[in-house]
Amino acid sequence: MGNHFSGTMDTLSYTPKTNDPGQLESELLLVNDISKSHQWWKADILAYLRRMTPWLFAGVCERCGISERQGLKLASIALRFPPGRRVEGVSVTMHEQVLILPTLEDMECALIQARDNGWGKADLSEYLRANPKGDDGRYPTAIKP
User: 71-99 as b/e, with b when 16 or more CB fall inside 10 Å?
Assistant: First the structure.
């Protein structure tokens, strides 16, 4: 016997059909995973739309409640970080932040460090500002934590 979800753009109604704590926890974790992933899903779909049906792109962005510029930014991030290059558990916006780093290795290391340390956007920004390029032209994130 499962639980019942229904919703609109602004609300999610949940009527539990069980008192099993394991089942309730499982469903909460599912909603949590969806919450963490939805920006990547949106970015991937926008990247596809931009490539396959560019004439529809602006209208779709508008109907999604974002500007065309925001849509282009999300699509660009998705293309720069295809699924195999994304660091799981790290947001789209944090992936965008590391684009200032010179190499893919530097970007990945900074994202892994952010994930492993539980950093948010502000923490990653502070880290990147506090650790500029050294004399060798490399960022200190090039050394994996």
Answer: bbbbbbbbeebeeeebbeebbbebbbbbe
In the chain, domain spans: 87-145
- Measure the CA–CA gap between 67 and 71, rounded to whole angstroms: 6
Q: Which contiguous run of DSSP H or E holds residue 13?
A: strand 12-15
Sequence-distant (6+) residues with CB within 8 A of 78 are 40, 43, 44, 46, 47, 92
Q: Are the C-beta atoms of residues 44 and 71 closer than 8 Å to each other?
A: no
DSSP string, 89-105: T--HHHHHHGGGSSSHH
pLDDT higher than threshold 90 for residue 14: no
Q: Name the residue type at position 34.
A: I
Q: Which two tokens stand for residue 81?
A: 């970080």
68-86, pLDDT tens digit by residue?
999 999 999 999 999 999 9
Rounded to whole angstroms, the Cα distance separating 105 from 2 reads 44
Torsions phi, psi of 66, nearest 5? -125, 155
- Cross-strand bridge partners of residue 12: 7
Asked whether the whole model's pTM tops 0.85, one would answer no
